[in-house]
Amino acid sequence: VVDTVSEMLGRLQTQPWDATLLSLSSDLVDEGLVERIAGLGAAGALLLSVPSASLAVAVLAERVGALAVLSEPIDPTEVRRRLATLASDGQLVRLPTETRATGELVGESPAMAEVFSLIARAAPSDSTVLVTGESGTGKELVARALHSLSGRSSGPFVAVNCAAIPEHLLETELFGHERGAFTGAVARRRGRFERASGGTLFLDEIGDMSVVLQAKVLRALEERTVERVGGESTQPIDVRVIAATNQDLSAAIEEGRFREDLYYRLAVIEIGLPPLRSRGADVGRLALHFAAHFARLHDRPIRAVTEAALARIEEETWAGNVRELRNVMDRAVLLTRGDVIRSHALRLGRAAPRVSAVPDRLEQPGYPTTASLAGVEADHIRRVLEDVGGQVGRAADVLGIHRNTLTRKIRAYGLDRFGEAP
User: Fold this and answer.
1) 3-50, pLDDT tens digit by residue?
2) What is the crossing angle of helices 55-64 and 31-38, to 10°?
3) Is the alpha carbon torsion for 20, 23, 27, 33 positive or negative?
4) CB under 8 Å to 36, separation ≥6 — which residues?
5) CB count, 10 Å around CB of 250?
6) How far apart, in whole angstroms, are the C-alpha atoms of residue 101 and residue 87?
7) What's the N-to-C CA distance of the chain in angstroms?
8) What percent of the chain has pLDDT over 90?
9) Do the beta carbons of residue 1 and residue 49 sit within 8 Å?
10) Which residue from 133, 264, 360, 373 has the least number of CB within 10 angstroms?
11) Which of 200, 289, 196 is nearest to 241 (CA)?
12) What does the alpha-carbon distance between residue 91 and residue 26 come to, in Å, rounded to a whole number?
């Protein structure tokens, strides 16, 4: 315990502390001193104490990243409990200080090294590229990297999610329409192919596109022209196409859901993104990268992540891949009290598996051969939704399909009670 500011600053210069407790009831302690001490790495974790809580103190604590605000008179047991959390999570791993572009691909694993190599070789050409991988692995980041490293980088990058746009609107979205082509078409409109002229068109979730529309896309790629809906003439296009999917297109071809000729036209170069669970040490690197990014974005004083928190992150299976990790770290930055992300801020606990009200055919050695494929699919979707508490986005990640695709299946199979969950 020190009684003067000068004594405290002198002690900090000779011996860094693990934590500093400042009493706001002292005449010597004001907001300026709190902010000054918070900026000293030697002060360690910052705790504040006050005779009574107030909004102003809460705002100050958030601004300086205080670990806790304690009530006075101070309870020694509460102080010990707070300090115990500092030791229980092990040593600190500091956040990277270098500034990376928000959309930059991060990774040093052999799997990502291969991806980087393919991007470097494919980018300079105008060849079509097919990017494959599970949902959340970063397929659009690859498409943007290909565009930025190409000779078309000064041109537009136009992205369209083929699963997010209703089928009857997707054709006009891609190819445009003439005035009067249909009710509501009050003016001519250029489609995404034309708007991407001189640049890159990114067709995301192309596996969800109808076979009829696939034929029109194939024709546009081969003839380098498009015909607007309701039009009688063709429009030349100068565009590089990059497509992406989380589906197994080989299986889709076998089932007649995807045109084989379009697959070969798209997959001149194919880049497969590995799931996060197979990227080894990249998981921890990405966690630190996202923590640093969101700390800057939200203006939070986060400086490190504990070893225990990183170990917990690396133990996860990450069914939602990089997207899920990004969201977890965003939440952790916002929930962290203090300047260090600890295990409890990660919110990684999994709920216990729920018991399905449906006969659990799929956990048996097999299922009746009389069961239809649709019945088995509906049964599995129902079980996954119940297991994740009805969270459609989370279920889509587990199933490896786009959220909109899952929403359509929920409606088709009469599982609408899950339709409103986030």
Assistant:
1) 888 888 888 888 878 788 888 888 888 888 888 887 776 777 788 999
2) 20
3) positive
4) none
5) 11
6) 34
7) 50
8) 41
9) no
10) 373
11) 200
12) 32
Cα 213–chain centre separation: 29
Q: Which amino acid is at 220?
A: A
Q: Which residue has the tokens 């300026």?
A: 32
Q: What is the distance between the alpha carbons of residues 332 and 356, in angstroms, rounded to a whole number?
A: 31
Q: Are 123 and 144 in contact (CB under 8 A)?
A: no
DSSP 153: T
70 φ, ψ to 5°? -100, 150
8 Å CB contact between 192 and 173: yes
CA distance 292 to 94: 9
Please report the sign of the dihedral spanned by the C-alpha atoms of residue 87, residue 89, residue 90, residue 91: negative
The answer for residues whose C-beta is within 8 angstroms of residue 210's C-beta and 6 or more apart is 167
Q: Which residue has the tokens 């692995």?
A: 137
Distance, in Å, from the CA atom of 130 to the CA atom of 124, rounded to the nearest integer, reads 15
Rg (CA), the chain: 27
Enter the DSSP assignment of 229. Answer: B
Q: CA angle 211-217-218, nearest 5°?
A: 90
Other beta carbons within 10 angstroms of residue 258's beta carbon come to 23
Give the span between the Cα atoms of 32 and 29, in whole angstroms: 8
CA distance 255 to 263: 14
Q: Is the peptide bond before 73 cis (omega within 30 degrees of 0)?
A: yes
Structure tokens at 264: 């070969």
Amino acid identity for residue 326 in this structure: R
How confident is the model over 302-353, as pLDDT tens digits? 889 988 889 889 988 898 899 999 999 998 898 787 788 988 778 775 433 3
Residues 6 or more apart in contact with residue 168 via CB below 8 angstroms: none
pLDDT band at 215 (very low <50, low <70, confident <90, very high): very high
Instruction: Give residue 405's identity as a one-letter amino acid code.
Output: T
In one-letter notation, the amino acid at residue 37 is: I
Residues 6+ apart with CB under 8 A from 159: 140, 143, 202, 204
Residue 184, sorted as left (phi over 0), alpha (psi -120 to 50) or beta, turns out to be left
CB of 418 closer than 8 Å to CB of 385: yes
What's this model's pTM, rounded to 2 decimal places?
Answer: 0.66
The total of other beta-carbon atoms located within 10 Å of residue 162's CB is 25
Burial class (CB in 10 A: 0-12, 13-18, 19+), 53: exposed
